[in-house]
Design goal:
The complex is a heterotrimer of chains A (391), B (355) and C (342).
Chain A lengths: L1 H4 L1 H18 L29 E6 L2 E10 L2 E11 L13 E4 L4 E3 L2 H9 L6 E4 L8 H9 L3 E2 L8 H7 L3 E5 L10 H5 L4 E4 L7 H5 L2 H7 L3 H23 L7 E3 L2 E2 L2 E5 L4 H8 L14 E5 H10 L2 E3 L7 H7 L7 H4 L3 E3 L15 H4 L1 H12 L13 E2 L2
Parallel strand pairs in A: 3-4, 5-6, 5-8, 6-7, 8-9, 10-14, 14-15
Antiparallel strand pairs in A: 1-2, 2-3, 11-12, 12-13, 15-16
Helix pairs in contact in A: 8-9, 9-15
Chain B lengths: L1 H5 L7 H22 L7 H9 L6 H36 L11 H13 L6 H8 L5 H25 L3 H24 L3 H11 L9 H19 L1 H7 L3 H6 L4 H23 L5 H13 L4 H23 L10 H19 L7
Helix pairs in contact in B: 2-4, 2-15, 3-4, 4-10, 4-13, 4-14, 4-15, 5-7, 5-8, 5-9, 5-13, 7-8, 7-13, 10-13, 14-15, 14-16, 15-16
Chain C lengths: L6 E12 L2 E6 L6 E2 L4 E5 L6 H9 L6 E6 L7 H5 L2 E4 L11 H7 L13 H14 L14 H14 L4 E5 L7 H18 L2 E5 L3 H7 L2 E4 L7 E3 L1 H6 L2 H7 L4 E3 L4 E3 L6 E7 L5 H14 L2 E4 L5 E8 L2 E8 L2 E5 L2 H12 L2
Parallel strand pairs in C: 4-8, 4-9, 6-7, 7-8, 13-14, 13-15
Antiparallel strand pairs in C: 1-2, 1-3, 1-5, 9-10, 11-12, 15-16, 16-17
Helix pairs in contact in C: 3-5, 4-5
Classes of the chains: A alpha/beta (391), B mainly alpha (355), C alpha/beta (342).
């Protein structure tokens, strides 16, 4: 005790307090909240192993879905009761929105939702889509072509009347921490359950993909979806074992700088997890945060000059494009050794990238791509699925 | 009679000391800017890298030569351009609060950039160009130039029909309002990433100009500066107002044309390459007038160049201050530095009475 | 002195063009000439087109028709015009951080080199302008700190530095106090003579103009322009006629404008030989007119006799038979006022 309050110890303590206070004063990134140490609250039912953002509880005669909604720094849990069609909701749970399953039609706002639905075999139940520009699924595109699927607008500009007129079984939205959930009040007041998909807040690729189980519960196919997910999990884990066990871990840089700032995934993000599982050496793997770090370009340059591989470079398609963006990129070792890879191999004719759609629910394919890139020869030869080398 | 006889030059001999002092400040600001950054490089090393080509630390050489030096050059060029643009606008409109974008040029450039970043997403062809990687950052720069040029032509057309400068000021304000409105509409219909990308563009950045872009930037700025300097006499005459200027033989319409062209060239290219950067254009001309205590544009133009460069280099150094975490956007720094300066000037001297 | 005129107008019509429409301000103007060494005053009530005419002659705005010939040529370029005519206008030029010397130096604009560099000859001319306008002690002051009178002199110095044969001034006495006005008019007259310039100025100062102008151009709101020596215009009754239309009476005898109309009550004014009569009579007459009296020569009920006592004037009021003496006009007027009461 005397060492804390006496002399130098006291100075050290106060210094520590000042540093902590300064660190706590760091501005929150507006797009993704910083995770407060350890995932708060929702421990998964054994059914949900990796995802921290939702859980499904089986109760007498119904299922209860809890979604952790982290909006504007606070957390609260959204609950939904899943009740079979024709059954009456339980009397002892008043006030909680009820969803009658199986859901026959649904409105989704983002292409990631399409990916989840397609995995669960529910792509044909989509009646409304937020933005027609971001679609890769052939089923959905056909639905758009025949006019079966209507465009309802994204986030703030959703066409409430259109959605209400469709009367879908559920509407799936993307959560935006800044937007109050109340923007969907009109729709939920009209009796349409609004379910946020917070898969992008997960810190692991499997956790993100596991949100398919939510869709599975909505369409009453929990078991099939569960089995399908299990095989994805097995494939992923065995690949991860290979990746983590690789002898050399090449260094990697991600993304491109923009206007003096280099946004690169933080250590607790799913991308960092991918890199760890793929056996890469990522300089910011130990940083905090589940989103991106906004770094001064100069801080990244020393790493970039020497990194063996350059991934996820954004809206470029060739080395020439990269050089056109900024001639200084030609000084990077990855540029000089032709080791630049981008995940835009599956971009369709309307400009939508399937990486964000089916890639969400096939993390094992992404991991396989990464291992093939970083450790050639370790896996049986095959072409890359989502990634391509930039020439 | 003796006082008039003693007036041999507009500059008193003490003016030479002032120039010397300013140049020293400029060198100091340059060195400060070259040594400021996320990576600590000692000043001695910086000198070594600048003046010798022997192999030192490769990373450091890359950083100094290819990141810091182009950035410092950009700062000097942009500092000159913005200050002279502001000076010309203040003289033309005889308004001490006029700033370079008052004709709507900055707004036009922003509109061009917004068209590419925000509305471009909904235009399939534009998106396809982006996906194919056509042009990269040249597309943004080109769009900004087109926007600025478009507004410039519109303003030139109007200046022929409009006799009165106040009308032109108002037209410039209206153009700015329209572009802001259109940009807002596009933002409303864009996804968050695009909006954020555009927002970051509006914060300004000196770091994106290098290689071929820097060459073109240098050419446009130097051209604008030369035109401005050659029209020093014209600008002096305009200080007395259009009637007196006309009576002294100045063709006011032609003078207006030249000034608009020079300012558009300077402001348009700066906005295109660096984004909108504010406050320097208003503050620096007043600083120059105060330092040299003259209204003679032959002195003010070089003075504005030097003072503007010093200020922007200083602002850039401050922007690097947070260290390896984000660099502060340059627009924020110039506002934080410039606004108090303008207030200080207003309070301390009464020199900002209406012209 | 009177050789070829510096400026001649031929068939000039002034006005404004807006859109496709013409607004005529001054129609049939006679041939106007400006000669070296002479001071011309442009007079006329508000709205008569003085400013328009001046600006047209100066080349600041185009004429509707006709021509202005300067040094024998019409259609001069801006620069040539700038070397012939310099202006002093009512525009404010404060606040641009100019000091007085720099502002005067700007007058060399049409003559100085391409970047505005001044030669020694330029500096001499600037010095002469400063001396002529007597602003030698103002040189380091900032323009926006000058008083109206000082500012006017500085603008005049600038025009003189421009060293042109013709100098035009638009309402130069507008914001000046009376002593400054007199000094300025005196200065202009002297400059015309000494520097052999042709000076044209527009003004409202009728009294000063009548004293100082070599020639007067009198504009009317509706009617032709009269020009001539000021005394001629007065004697011809032109002044009276021009201002009568404005419901303002010009008194030819005294050369002033009568503020008060002719009064109803008649009174006779007699001056004795001993009194220093003329001045006292003049001022007494004015006071009586203010009180609403008409002063007449012939017999009229009441009379006032001005006499002298102890070197000072006295007034004897002979009204209704009684004669009382007063030592001041104020006392006299007070008495007259009492008389009015029935």
């Amino acid at each position: 005790m005397s060492t804390i309050f006496g002399g130098r110890g006291f100075h050290r303590l106060s210094l520590l307090l000042i540093v902590i206070a300064a660190a706590c004063g760091e501005p929150q990134k507006p797009d993704k909240p910083v995770a407060s140490g350890g995932s708060a609250g929702v421990e998964g039912h054994p059914l949900v192993k990796y995802a921290h953002g939702f859980r499904i509880d089986h109760r007498a005669g119904y299922r209860e879905v809890s979604i952790l909604n982290r909006a504007a720094g606070r957390s609260d849990t959204l609950r939904y009761l899943l009740v079979d069609q024709g059954q009456t909701p339980p009397a002892d749970r008043p006030g909680i929105p009820v969803i009658h399953t199986p859901v026959r039609t649904m409105v989704v706002l983002a292409s990631s939702h399409i990916g989840l639905a397609e995995f669960a075999g529910a792509a044909d139940r989509i009646a409304g889509l937020g933005n027609f520009q971001y679609v890769s699924s052939p089923v959905v595109r056909e639905g758009i072509r025949t006019g079966k699927i209507k465009q309802v607008g994204i986030d703030g500009s959703t066409n409430n009347e259109l959605v209400i007129a469709m009367h879908p079984g559920v509407m799936i939205t993307s959560t935006n921490p800044d937007a109050a959930f109340g923007q969907y009040k009109t729709i939920s007041d009209a009796g349409i359950p609004v379910v946020p998909d917070a898969e992008w807040l997960e810190t692991t690729p499997l956790g993100r993909a596991e949100w398919v189980k939510l869709i599975g519960a909505l369409i009453d196919r929990e078991e099939e979806v569960g089995k399908k997910f299990d095989s994805v999990e097995r494939a992923y884990l065995s690949l991860a074992a290979i990746g983590r066990g690789a002898k050399t871990k090449p260094s990697v840089i991600i993304a491109m700088p923009w206007k003096g700032t280099w946004y690169t995934p933080a250590g607790e993000s799913y991308m960092a997890q991918f890199l760890r599982d793929a056996g890469a050496s990522y300089s910011w793997s130990d940083t905090k945060g589940i989103g991106s770090l906004a770094l001064n370009v100069e801080a990244v340059i020393p790493v970039a000059l020497k990194a063996g591989y350059w991934l996820n470079v954004g809206y470029v398609d060739s080395r020439k494009d990269i050089q056109a963006k900024d001639p200084r990129f030609a000084g990077f070792r990855a540029f000089q050794t032709d080791s630049i890879y981008n995940f835009n191999k599956r971009v369709n004719d309307i400009g939508s990238n399937d990486y964000w759609e089916s890639g969400l629910v096939n993390p094992q394919r992404i991991l396989a791509d990464l291992i093939r890139i970083l450790h050639p020869g370790v896996l049986p030869p095959d072409s890359l699925y989502y990634y391509k080398q930039l020439k | 009679m003796s006082i008039a006889q003693n007036r041999t030059a507009d500059q008193a001999p003490s003016g030479l000391w002032r120039w010397a002092g300013l140049f020293l400040l400029l060198i100091g600001a340059l060195l400060l800017d070259l040594s400021a950054g996320a990576v600590r490089i000692p000043l001695r090393e910086v000198f070594h890298i600048l003046f010798t080509s022997s192999a030192g630390d490769e990373t450091w050489r890359f950083i100094v030569e290819r990141i810091r030096v182009p950035k410092a050059c950009t700062a000097v060029l942009a500092g000159c351009g913005l200050s002279i643009g502001g000076l010309q606008m203040q003289t033309l409109f005889r308004n001490p609060l006029a700033e370079p974008g008052v004709l709507g040029i900055t707004a036009g450039a922003s509109l061009g950039v917004a068209a590419v970043m925000l509305a471009g997403g909904s235009m399939a062809t534009l998106y396809a160009i982006k996906e194919l990687g056509g042009g990269g950052s040249w597309m943004v720069t080109g769009a900004a130039c087109l926007g600025a040029a478009g507004v410039m032509l519109f303003v030139l057309m109007l200046s022929r029909r409009v006799r009165d400068n106040v009308t032109m000021l108002i037209i410039g304000l209206m153009i700015s309002s329209i572009t802001i409105a259109v940009t807002s509409v596009w933002q409303y219909f864009s996804n968050p990433e695009e909006v954020k990308e555009y927002l970051i563009w509006t914060f300004g950045s000196l770091g994106g100009v290098s290689g071929g872009q820097l060459l073109i930037f240098t050419i446009t700025i130097v051209a604008g500066l030369v035109i401005a300097f050659l029209s020093s006499k014209m600008l002096d005459a305009l200080l007395l107002g259009e009637n007196y200027a006309r009576s002294m033989g100045l063709t006011v319409e032609r003078a207006r044309l030249v000034i608009i062209c020079s300012t558009s060239l300077l402001v348009g290219s700066i906005t295109a390459f660096c984004g909108p950067i504010g406050f320097l254009g208003i503050a620096v001309p007043h600083l120059a007038r105060g330092t040299f205590n003259t209204a003679n544009h032959r002195i003010l133009i070089p003075a504005c160049c030097v003072i503007g460069s010093i200020l922007l280099l200083l602002c850039d150094s401050i922007a690097q201050w947070p260290g390896s975490q984000t660099v502060l956007p340059i627009n924020i720094v110039t506002s934080l530095v410039g606004a108090p300066m303008v207030i200080f000037l207003l309070l301390r001297t009464r020199k900002l009475k209406p012209f | 002195m009177n050789s070829t005129p510096l400026l001649v107008t031929r068939g000039l019509q002034t006005g404004y063009r807006s859109g496709g429409k013409k607004l005529l301000v001054s129609a049939q103007l006679p041939e106007l000439t400006v000669k070296a060494g002479r001071l011309i005053c442009l007079l006329g009530p508000n709205g008569s087109g003085k400013s328009t005419l001046l600006r047209t002659l100066a080349g600041l705005q185009p004429a509707l028709s006709g021509a202005v010939e300067i040094a024998g040529k019409a259609g001069l370029s801006s620069t040539e015009l700038a070397r012939q005519i310099s202006l002093v206008l009512t525009d404010r030029v404060g606040g641009s951080n100019l000091n007085v010397w720099s502002l005067v130096a700007l007058g060399r604009y049409p003559w100085s080199g391409w970047l505005g560099v001044l030669s020694d000859a330029d500096r001499d001319i600037i010095r002469r302008g400063i001396d002529a306008a007597d602003i030698g002690d103002l040189l380091d002051r900032k323009v926006h700190t000058l008083s109206d009178g000082e500012s006017q002199k500085v603008m005049l110095a600038r025009a003189l530095a421009q060293d042109t044969p013709i100098l035009m001034l638009d309402e130069p006495t507008a914001h000046l106090d009376l002593p400054s006005r007199i000094r300025l008019m005196r200065l202009l007259h002297r400059l015309a003579r000494e520097m052999n310039k042709g000076i044209l100025l527009s003004t409202h100062e009728l009294d000063l103009a009548l004293q100082v102008a070599d020639e007067v151009w009198l504009l009317q709101s509706a009617g032709p322009l009269h020009k001539g020596a000021p005394e001629d215009l007065v004697l011809e009754g032109v002044f009276e006629a021009a201002f009568e239309k404005e419901d303002v009476h010009f008194d030819r005898a005294t050369g002033v404008f009568r503020i008060y109309p002719e009064g109803g009550r008649r009174i006779r004014l007699i001056v004795t030989a001993t009194a220093r009569g003329a001045m006292a009579e003049f001022w007494t007459r004015r006071a009586l007119q203010r009180e609403g009296f008409a002063v007449v020569e012939e017999e009229a009920g009441d009379a006032i006799v001005i006499g002298e006592q102890g070197g000072r004037p006295i007034w004897v009021l002979d009204a209704g038979g009684a004669g009382r003496q007063y030592n001041s006009i104020a006392a006299l007027l007070q008495a007259l006022d009492h008389l009015r009461l029935p």
